[in-house]
## 1
Amino acid sequence: METRVIVGLGSCGIAAGAGKVFEALRNIKEEGKTVFQLSRTSCIGMCYREPLVEVIDDKGSVIYGNVDEERVAEIVSRHLINKEIVSEWIVKSENHETIDDTFFGGQVKIALRNCGFIDPEKIEEYQSAGGYKALEMIAAGKVTPEAVVQKVMDSGLRGRGGGGFPTGLKWKLTLNSPSDEKYIICNADEGDPGAFMDRSLLEGDPHSVLEGMIIGAYAVKASGGVIYCRAEYPLAIKRLNIAILQAREKGYLGKNIAGIKGFNFDIYVKEGAGAFVCGEETALMASVEGRRGMPYKKPPFPSESGLWKKPTNINNVETWANIPWIITEGPASYASYGTEKSKGTKVFALTGKINRGGLVEVPMGISLREIIYELGGGIQNGRQFKAVQMGGPSGGCIPAALVDTIIDYDSVTSTGAIMGSGGMVVMDETTCMVDVARFFLDFTYKESCGKCTFCRVGTKRMLETLSRICEGEGKESDIELLEELAYQIKDSSLCGLGQTAPNPVLTTLKYFRNEYLAHITDKKCIAGVCTKLLTYEVIPENCTGCTVCAKNCSVNAISGERKQIHFVDQAICIKCGVCFSKCTFDAIRKY
Amino acid sequence: MNEIKITLNGKEVTAVKGEKILTVAERNGISIPTLCNDPRLDPYSSCFVCVVEVDGMRGLQPSCSTPVGDGMVIATDNNKIRQARKSALDLLLSNHYADCVGPCKQTCPAGVDVQGYISLIEKGRYREAVSLIKEANPLPAICGRVCVRPCEVACRRNLLDEGSGVGVDYMKRFAADKDLDDPDRFMPVTEPPTGKKVAVIGAGPGGLSAAYWLQQKGHQCDIYEAAPKPGGWLRYGIPEYRLPNDILDSEIEGITGIGVNIFCNQRLGGNLKFADLNKEYDAFILAPGSQKGTRLGCEGDEAENVLPGIDFLKQMELTGKRPDFRGKTVAVVGGGNTAMDCCRTSIRCGADKVYVVYRRTEKEMPANPIEIHESKIEGVEYLFLTNPVRVNKDSSGRVSSMTLIRMALGEPDSSGRRRPVEVAGSEFDMEVDYILAAIGQKTDLNFLDDLNAGTDKGVLKANKWGDIDADPSTLRTGVENVFAAGDSVSGPATIIEAVAQAQIAVHSCHGYLMGLQIVPPEKVFLSKKENFKKQSPTDYAGRFVPQKREEMPVLDPVRRMNFTEVELGYTDETVVKQEANRCLECGCTAFFDCDLQRYATEYRADQTRFAGEFNAFDVDFSHPFIEFDRNKCILCGKCVRICREYVGANALGLVNRGFVTYVSPDLDGSLTDTKCETCGLCISVCPTGALMENYKFKPGPIESTPVRVVDIFTSEGVTYDLLNRAGFFMGADGAPGIVNPDGSIGRQQRFGYNVLNRIDRITSPLMKVNGEFKPIGFEEAFALIADKIRASDPDDNMFFAGARLTNEEQYQIQKLARAAVKTNNIGSFHYMGRCKGYLDASDNNVSFSEMPGATAFFVVGAELTEENQFTGFLVSNSRFRKGTPVKTFTVNPSGSMRHKSDEYTVIRSYYYFILAVNHCIVTEKMYNLMYINDHCLGFTEYAESLARKEYKLLLAEAGVTGEVVSKFATDYTSNHNPVLIFSEKEICPDTAREIRNLAMLTGTLGKRSAGLVCLKEKNNSQGLIDAGISSARLPGNREIAANGSHALAAGKWGVTGMSEKTVSMKSRLFEGSFKNLFIFGEDPAGTAFDKDEMVKCLSESDFMVVQDYALTDTALLADLVLPAAYPWETGGSFTNTQKFLQRFAREADSPLAVNQLEQIAEIALRVGYRMSGTPDEILSEMFGFLTPNSEKFTIRPTTGPGKSPICDFGADMLSRQFALYFNGEMSG
């Protein structure tokens, strides 16, 4: 067989330099020194090893990580020309053990089944990987919409956008809403800080989402589809639009789709203007209609009255991507993964202080410990694991003590966090939990649409209180105030943004109350993050009197003669930390 | 059925599925607070003040948008809900950088509404100003002279470049003096007697105030005063050069005048025994004051000629004798107002030298700075930072000198003032003859034992300062029916504080007398800018026109060696107005109808609980009618939504996200640059004072009395309230009426009151003598008119009645003409020469309430954004809510409907366009033959007449292509419920006829939610048709020539010899074949398109009478002008453009001795015909003429585009005035 070289050209790969790698390979190919097929794929999930280059030849597949132009040259000469595998750079291979094997060990790829394997810009590759089979099966088998809905219900799939509402049930409600017109929406307005599941999926396998939507349209009898994607995802939008064109050409979109008489359906991509709240379904629909993206009160639910006041079924990217697989492999196969109430798999974006940051798809029921320590390879720099933040600004922090929590909707919710759309930010001992709460509040306060009093003003006041605490001006009554406001904001906000905005504060208060108290009463930040609460001090035993610290101090807070022990005047020190970072003798202590 | 059962606060109630909880609760009498809900708009749910708890639902639910479900269990009030509502309010208020009331009112201990009375003073309504002041302070003339004026200190004018606060007291004094001089001075209304009696001890400011208010509440108040005359400190402490006794007496008369008795020389515990009083009185107010002087308190202070200052002042008043200080040196010790009174009095007693010895500096002196200033002018010298150490006596025990010591200022003490400390070794001596110690007073409680001996209802005690011990929040003492007020409770304080205490004591005492629980007066929530930041000059600089304070004229210093009042008072009203103009109006105009403030009070909201960053904006005054203060906006979005959903102008939007969101006109510009229609609905929906009317005067705010009226401008007939305060209209607001159950009103109604305020009303007949009008009596006027009528042939008289007049007036005027004068020369300038086509234009119209059922609106010649905004709201709301298309056909390429129409077609001629449409419908057989056969006459003739017309020519005249016409025809006929709207202002009578023909051809006339909406020009244009204001037609639109009509009238009116001759009023008028002109409620000279011709024509008359509100252009031409009362001053009825007859009551007093109906009847009587009647009687007589609508409609051919009007503005001065005013303001 002809050797194939595939470069991972997802946003993560491109950001890491995969574009140059691809160029280099193309130049080599054009020079003609060696013959190989060069193609592209998307993210396989190992973002921490990007750029990735896969070589497939007679000996099977080998993926090299951290490839740059130099490594390209070497891979070409050693692997392509000399047929010698460059074992030291392998990150994944069928025939070689690598230190990264545990990354894939626990994963089950259903939604991400094609990501990193096919060229997302070629419908043929999707088709040859089994794409559009599900749709054709439905067409061939004359499966009724009701039966499709039943399959989805049987699979136990729940909304992967974070809400966890049973997908089949949602479809059923929409199917049962009588109307001359219905719509399907794919919510691709991924906005949680640290989350990139949807982006990777759209970039890596847009057709799986389209096929899911087409099946959904058939099932609920919708005629129009909208993919609401944030404009900050240009590559995803580009590939979606390519995919839509290809699907139309192949007759998967348009009139009498897949030969099913009277099944007319089309999709267009609506680019969001960057408001986080537009990920909330009612605000999203308002935005599609050209109005200000502000939520309104449910009921009526979109299944009754949604886009343009017509019954509308909204699902998230990952949910849609699961659908074709469920149809082809059968609901039972899907339901064979997971726990009693949470079936199937879930995609997570692993970020933060973890060794292997990237995208993983795991079966429900896996423990946090497995994800963090086995897939994720543990904490960076051997530090202590402190907490994991799940669910983005709507979620919460699960402390290290609960690391054996298993991943399913109920277990995660019982910790005070939420499953969310899949963001998983790992924190270590150098993370200040009050600061984390402040970070998320700062996000939600800015992203509040400004409609509801509690969300608009309440989050602002919570943020101000947290800032005060971080700056050492907290009062004992602040905790009470935070809790009161938090519950009231949750109780009295129209949409998910407000209803969940206080979660990061509530969970950190629940598990890390001592950190709050330390900030307020002792005026100390245990993690050493809150600058105003830090003290920089010279450790006399280590100080050599080199004067570097004193020279670099912008406010002349450090005094001391050459070769004498130096001294930091706390009254002058502005806690900028320059001395700490400049000292080469570990003679500055920060606490 | 969709009927479901829910449980609301434990009670099962019925609701309709889909209804919102808030709606169901309101229907069941449960009020839920809400700031963002409006029944006109889709639920929004932003404020979260309306939250309720629903069993089984997470959190709290906004009741405005949560639909009820079967079996739902709802609680609308519990602790959790109240907490959440309070928090919502706290949060909203934490970003509400605004003042509810100005610092003046906030600072005034008695809470006198300074901004309110300044507003009344601005309008020259001094009596009203006094009435407002006296709600909180019964002593305005006194306080206007001697108050310590915390209001002026707090005044924000101080922050501007002039550095001097508004002369609040000077204005108060001016108003109060005016009122005192007025024979009809203000006296409050007292409630019916309760049978309870209250004894007040002490006739000082506290006692007088308490008695004044308790008496008003119906309790008999008797004041017992120890001194020979009432006034207390006011008389015995304040010298006459500051407060003349006649002013004091006069002000006290304002209190005794309502029934309060004052018994002097009655000293409690002396010649007056509490035990005796206790038998007679139900409750007591103790207000004996704090009048015991304090001794100097240093060695030698027992020396002769060392006196407490107040004894010195009091003695003088008691004896009427002034000490002779000539050649003497007087030292006054102290820095308060008593010290000032002592030193300035000493000067007036002839002292050579007067020193004030004060231990701090001038800056710390508690005395009024003006007093210090005046004393210096008068020659008083000051020894600051000086304190007496010792009084040195001569051999006879008199003062010879005083040893003083220098002081320095140390650390601030608890009062915040720097504590004076002695400078060691700085003693010095000063020779003096008299020392007056003005260093404080004490309360004399020598009646304590007597009181306690005389009651078994508790024990009166002294507190640790020697004052009466009373609960500070209720001022109830240890004796349950004894309350206390004034200095005797607080220790020596100010007059206004004594008045303030009297308010609390009165509140408690009244509660006690009425058997209520005694609680402190309700604390009203007040938002304050100071809660956010201290106000500084930079917050005000550049935002107001600088204007110097009008200073108080004072007596020349050389003429002050007497006790003549030094301050002379403002000299005239211009000065007062100028000073009033300096008021910055810090208080919110919406204060009396602010929902946020009301709820904040109810839920005891706390503006500072969530204090943090806040948004501050400049107030936007750029729109001439709408003021926009975003600081007060709570983002309920009502203005944005009503403008989009109801008005269709979409002039407002939300900018930004989150905390920094704000409401702004399109593109962040001025409202004037948007499609704003100046309807004012945004103002009416604003739950706070963010959107307010940009008032042309100082609005106060002042509570006003709503006068409920039916529209006097447009023909839609909406109901609204004119907000009346003492004859001045402070504003207008929509009220639910038959036509506008939601209370929506348009611009004429909302802003038209400004025109009323500008009208210079006439209240008596005016006769022109040598070209000048002079007032004459009604008697004389009637006699003159009767003479003129009698002296002429009946048909030499011409009568005109206007479309603004009530049905009753119109009817009586034609009856005057026909039955009394016996002529049919009756008509209106309004419909002159063009009435015919309009006669049935309003028959069988779609009612406003059915308009939402339309499936398409065809607007043909109607500017709904300007003339008929209410109709426009209905159209735009249907368009928003249901997508009902709006198709506009107009001759105006830049008409105001363009942005609110789905189709906008410019045509050349309405007449030919509609004719072409009808032609098309007939030739293409698109008509509804079944309907025509059932309902219409004249179809064949009409079809034939159309057939004679050449279609191409019609198209050419209409200025459109055949496609446009056939599209219109197809659209109109294929729509289930097409509604065609046209206005008589734009459409000529024959076009109106053809439009009616169109509705008949298509079978839409008279169908529910389909057919025509005719908009007439004036509020009672239809009345002209119904009341018989037409030469050829009797009331009820009966043709005079028709069988029996004439006889019917003759019979009803009991008159013989009525004329059957009818004329064209227009020709007759312009031919000049008449002698006497009688014009009621029309202003042809002011409104004619060809004014010169009209004036010339009117001038032809031998004798011309005009009846109107003011001297209109027409009235100026008249020989005799009769005054007219406003409709709400007589009562009556108007018939709106859809023939809804709306009666309204007499809501206000008329300034006229004889109103217009009485005038008409009187004129008739003078020419030998009696026709009286109340409006109700007149109306029922008119009903006797009405005929049922004929069962068949007649399709009538027309001959060509009809006549155009002679007069604009419906020939009405009000409409013209409004248009001039409105356009003038809008064009700046």
## 2
Amino acid sequence: MARPSIENIRGLPDWAQVIRWDLQFSSIPAAINANITIDELNFRCESTALPTATVAAIETNIRGHKVKSPGIMSYGNTLDLVFAETVDSKIHSFFKAWRDAIWQVKTGVAAAPVADLKGSFLLNRLNNQDVQIWQYKVVGAYLENHSLPTLDGSSNDALKVTLTFSYDYYEDKAA
Amino acid sequence: MAFLNGIEQIRSVEWGATYLWDVKFPDAPPPFDSWFPAVDLKEDLAKLSTYDFEAYIHKFSIPQSTSVKEIHLTFLDDAKQTLSSWIDFWINQTILNGGQSVSSLETSLKLIQILKLNRQREQVSSLAYAVFPEGNITFSGSSDTGPLQYSVTFKVAGIIGQKRTFP
């Protein structure tokens, strides 16, 4: 097999680009009383990690010969989404509503059973014509953590919020 | 020539794994009658006690008897405490009749099915035991975030069904 020629490379389809994607919350949990729409979340989402899974190895180590077998696959189970905040504080309202639904300040009361505190969302990768080419469906998501930037007196950057979602599993497929 | 000649002999075996098993109590309350949220299992497959004796300057052991098998199960419970309530009722009402008397062995037993699986989640062996709980079922509360978990030991009174492949 020879080294690839330039024509081999030129003959490949368009490269998939990291800018071509969208976020779609298929369901915001019933208990989350946030004043934000699915589109408003999508428009403010600046970047996202993609879900991954790892297969643990079972090592069979017999007198110097080590063989590995696939064991339990575990999903990454957390995913970081970075949102740019707007002056209407839509993102703050969103994560505050979710956080308060899980654990009410002072009392620790949850607003609803677990099933109503979890949602699911889609991460769609698009081609250069913005047609969906691959879809990740993240299931059982809830807000596990959020991190906020330091406010200062010299930066020009927008205020960006990283929301860490915990999830149970994901499915991915070609569109 | 050695018995084990190289890594290819080891590679040719499909090795077992500790997570390839399943458990069901058909009499458990729903939804745990069709599957059981057990996270750890210890199952006595065979037990043999020996008779030890000494003669002159030697000590000997010979097979003598067997004893009651045990099954140790660790399982998770739901927010309604469905399973701990069920085992509580099993011990205190079904067996101990509210502290008034002890039921017969036949009345005290429930069925547990234990499967061993391969990686395709196909059944490799199946054993069904008639068991009763022994010892305590203890709620362990804490102030940390963690699942609600119980450990129970069951004594085996009989093997109802057995399907094991050997060799």
## 3
Amino acid sequence: MKAVIMPGFSELIIVVNPTQEVTREGMLSIVMPWLYAPWPHAREKGIIETEIDGDTLRALLAELSTRYKVANVDFQPINPTTNDLDFDYDVLVNGKNYVALAHGLDTKLKDGDEVKLKMLWRWDG
Amino acid sequence: MLDQSELIRYNRQLIIPDFGEEGQNKLKNAHAIIIGIGGLGCSSATYLTAVGVGHITIVDFDTVELPDLNRQILYWQEDIGEKKVIVAQKKLSKLNPLVQITPVFTKVTEENVLSIIKGAQVVLDGTDNVATRLIVNSACVKLKTPYIYGGVSRLRGMLTTIIPGKTPCLACFHPEGAGGLGVLGVTPAIIANLQALEAIKLLIGHSPALAGKLLLFNGDDMKFQVYDIKRNESCPVCSPTLPR
């Protein structure tokens, strides 16, 4: 599947097989620079276009993890021990949390789906 | 000036190049505030006291409970039920009687935060929730007081040093994430000691290494990563375009 990725301040917004033009309208122009690490050439435009093997949410997250690993960025949304979403992240598909989806991370993504992957902060003390 | 007992007590750090008596005197004349004296605050307070920060204010509204004892190292079994700030003051003063420890038994609110923080050279985060952190963050931006954020869960931790007007503040990120996920005792100790190191560097006039950077600690695989972070031009708290 084709994935159009827009890094935000603490999140990635990913549109799958977009059915219309994807723009950064409404998003901040400044983002965490390291979110572009695997695609430094895309920094100026702010939009990353890439191909992902597979058609599920899990495949998308696993592929992103691999790309960041190559760029030496610690970004692993799927915890290898639990095989579920790591607690450093939260993920929504079209605004719906993945835990509310019938197939969770194994949900098949449809053309035009918007995935929001949020990086969470730590608040305990 | 340092007296003979101070020269002996602080000998191991006085011989560090670029620290010396000048650095020690700066620490002696400094005032640091630790908001929250739990897992993070117990460790940062211990090391700031040991290093000789002249005045440390510790703020907390809680009493010692049994589940605190896995990580809040200033409290022991015999302290259960006592006010944390009072127990901490007694023990820190025994560690280093040259340091003035001011206990403040109160909950930090939007109403009292400015009066608590005013006059400090640095504020260290020792809280356990996002709401209080954002209150402290806003006050530090307003007073232009450096604020060292630290947060933990389980075996993970985060840290950044906020220099108002120069680096991103906590509100820049619209930060999200749940608390109450559990904490292994050593995790806040690791993050809090890094907070203390950043505070010491700030107080002696050295550049804090984590200003404008976010440190992520993952104790599951023992990884430290540091990333550059940028200010949010639309931040509701620190944006340079906000009316003052």
## 4
Amino acid sequence: MKALDLEGLTISEIAPLIRKKQISPLELTRGYLDRIRTLNPLLNAYLAITEDSAVAAAKKAEREITKGNYRGPLHGIPFSIKDNIAVKGVTTTAGSKILSDWVPDFDATVVEKLKEAGVVILGKTNMHEWAKGSNSINPFYGSSRNPWDTTRVPGGSSGGSAVAVAASLCVASLGTDSAGSVRNPASLCGTVGLKPTLGRISSLGGVEGTGGYTVNHFGIFTRTVKDCALVLQQLAGDDPQDPLSSDEPVPNYTKPIGSPVKGMKLGIIKGYFEQSLVPEVRQAFEEALRMLKGLGMKIQEITIPHMDLVPALQAASTRPEANSDHDHYLRTRPRDYSPGLLYTLIAGLLIPAPVYVTAQRVRRLLCQEFDTAFEKVQAIVAPTLFSTAPTIEECNRGYIESDGQRINLQDRAGNFLTRYTIPFNVTGLPTISVCCGFSSSGLPIGMQISAPPFQEGTVFQVGHAYEKAAEWYKRRPQL
Amino acid sequence: MKDAVRRLNVEYGFNLTEEEIDLVAKQAEEAALLFRPLFEVNVTGITPLTKVDKRVRKTSTARKGKK
């Protein structure tokens, strides 16, 4: 199999061919490993390539399938895993200097589940230091680069995972999302990125200190919405070892895909997602709304009274939770953090406890306001980010310019690259980012679709209908 | 705030310079301003959110909104 043949492949395309023995998992795996060897020096998507174990897993899959023991649609499919998710026997750095030589002796629950499904793990992907940022500029391991323009960041913190999927260095990837860390890079790299309902996927085996507890979610990167549903089907469910996981029944996630969307009501929240929205992103989002209407869906404005408090709720939740995890290393290895992260963590030590508790109470109020909104609409749509991917230089200087206006990437309320994604972290709502167009310079633009708790099926239904009509997912970066 | 940062500097052994103490203090002051509006919300009768549960339904106290 030639490397070029791998570009843009999806699980839905490959799985039937693997099942019919028309594609060999071993050949597929070797093809991706070749492609990684060629392109990773340019893109820096992978921190570790697990070639030996990948080849062994592929051989095992091939043997099983040859004997007629096909496990399901993920059998023999090459995946990558963000480097803050434990994979037994593989160095897991969390993008940090402190954990540069940590080798877990266990698999995260999600990794266990993927292995049960027979996937092939190709390696661990690059990320923002301790997942505490959204551009994947990493001072210890180098920056991941956006495959659509390598002078630009891929977003983050799961930047390497998004790059790996967008550049066809794997078929699917796992990441984590405590402020948009799956949806943000998915948007900037033109892939699908799902943050399911809080607790829908076990977070056992995520590196402590990379996302906190009450707003952190494991998530999925794929090329298409249907692929995302296939992966969630394998990962969703209660984990007796993770008290934050949910025992809500797991439905058939592929069933809503292709179901009629005519007459569905979608909400847009006014007054929040317009902040600093650059013209090309606004245009692409408005065009996407027109297409959704064209598919028979109705768009209506909804109101969330306390929406303005979202940045405060996010910061008041994540910062004290991070400090709980980082206290030991702050006392023993403070200078092994990058300076910027060290200062943020020290400032976090000064947040009074009532701020944290009050924030959790206001979060419940906010969730109730979303519940009320969902009595009128079945899903909410919003841009994923205010802009396309900034350059590495723009991130380092701290601002971008749009239409002659300077937009700071960081302000009192935190990181502006996550401003549009955090509402769905503080509410825990299932939210997907799908590509909704490209800028004039060829950079991807993302749109979020969010639904009530545990209604990932609705997110897939709307996302698939849009994706099928728009066909943006068929575009590939020229590498 | 600078005094609080200096106390942490000693307790944790950060060895921060004066310039770094200024930077951290500024961040902490900005965060305090960001969090202030949270205390203007009436959260009487509302328990903290720690886990999403679709069976939880809103109560009458949930509709009180800002003070």
